[in-house]
Amino acid sequence: MKTIGITTTVPIEVLLAAGYQPVDLNNLFIGSIERERMVSIAERAGFPQNCCTWIKGIYGVCLEHDVKNVLCVTTGDCSNTTMLMEVLRLKGVDVLPFAYPEQPDAVLMQKALQNLAQTLGTTIAKAEKVRKELERARQLAWKLDELTWRDGLVSGLESHYWLVSTSDFNGDYMEYERRLGGLLAEAKGRKPYHDDFLRLAYIGVPPVFAGGLYPYIEQNGARVVFNEIQLQFAMPHPGSSLAEQYSNYTYPYSIRGRAKDIVTELHRRRIDGVIHYVQAFCHRGIGDIIFRHAIHLPVLTLEGNTDFTLNAHVKTRIEAFLDMLRRRATTTSGTSGG
After folding, report:
1. Alpha-carbon distance values, 327 to 18, 200, 314, 330, 331 (Å)
2. Residue 231 lies in a domain
3. Please, are residues 47 and 71 in contact by the beta-carbon 8 Å criterion?
4. Where is 69: in which H helix or E strand?
5. What DSSP state is assigned to residue 191?
6. Which segments in the chain show pLDDT lower than 50?
């Protein structure tokens, strides 16, 4: 299969049906031990310092790994992707644009899927067969989420990693199934997290410092039981067709739809507080205003840029936030008991 890079979660069923192996360039970038060098490649090429680290990382990865084909999402993701696409073309990369509809409408989504399938030389019927093949892998990801929030057997970092990996299933969905199935079997024998742990939700794009964030939260007596966008990557509301599946996927559409989905999960998962991650220089950071209006729980907004590990300032803010949640819980409990 020919490799095709993707800049965010896309209808990979169409790509697979067309004989392409999708590779999430974000995961390739953030999983590299040379992340800083990927960013420096972009900056030496002329990308400004006040450009999103993810965009620069994707560019660096494309050049470093000699990626020949890239599917760029021009509507429904990052506002910088259109210009990234132009620069990649300048460098000789074969770039294909894909635009999510402006609203979650199955009819409009069906047209977008048909256009993509036609461009790649395949059909929706073949893509629907691939959707069936991926069902088992997606179901395992949903089970992982349940074991995280309902049973307390899976860590926030494990949840983050396996859910975010559903964007491309790490390049091999059958191997993904095998490895995740083994983890779930092992997790069922674990001792659950203590009930005293604060229950947090993580909303926003995946963080650049995930490897440090989740363990640090747990070291301080809390854990993430809801990874919003990462769970969306796993298509938790698949519907009965590809068009429905990618219409129910909340990330590309109005932030109000995301907020509605988030609030539902906050209640269901008994969340104590919310961490909203925003990437520096990203237009989505403005959405913090809307989330704070919709979410009637304490919200800690963290901004990441090129620090791939937690710095002292972020650690202090996390600690203070968790202390506030504990005081709030004590006050609420005392009021209820009085």
Report:
1. 55, 15, 20, 5, 6
2. no
3. no
4. strand 69-75
5. P
6. 337-338
Tokens 């006050």: give the residue.
Answer: 331
Q: Which of 309, 278, 276, 269 has its CA nearest to residue 293? A: 276
| Structural domains of the chain, count | 1
CA–CA separation, 232 vs 314, rounded Å?
26
Whichever domain contains 7, its CATH number is: 3.40.50.11890
Query: What is the residue-wise DSSP string for 285-320?
Result: GGGHHHHHHH--S-EEEEEESS--S--HHHHHHHHH
- Alpha helices (runs of H) in 122-241, residue ranges in sequence order: 124-149, 156-164, 173-187, 210-219, 228-233
- The 10 Å CB-count burial string (b at 16+, else e) for 125-152 is ebbbebbeebeebbebbbbbbebbbeeb
What pLDDT is stored for residue 267 in this prediction? 98
Helices (H) and strands (E) in the chain, counts: 15, 8
HSE toward the beta carbon, residue 149, CA cutoff 13 A: 24
**pLDDT score, position 335:** 56
Cα–chain center distance at 44: 28
Q: Give a yes or no: residue 65 inside a domain.
A: yes
In a domain, residue 100? The reply is yes
Dist. CA 151–CA 147, nearest whole Å = 5
Continuous segment of H or E residues that includes residue 21: strand 20-24
Specify the length of the chain in residues.
Answer: 338
User: Could you give the CA distance from residue 301 to residue 299 in angstroms, rounded to a whole number?
Assistant: 6
Q: Which domain holds residue 99?
A: 2-124
CA distance 152 to 59: 38
The verdict on residue 93 lying in a domain is yes
Question: How many other CB atoms are there within 10 angstroms of residue 274's CB atom?
Answer: 23
- pLDDT at residue 333 in the model: 62
The tokens of 119 are what?
Answer: 């461009």
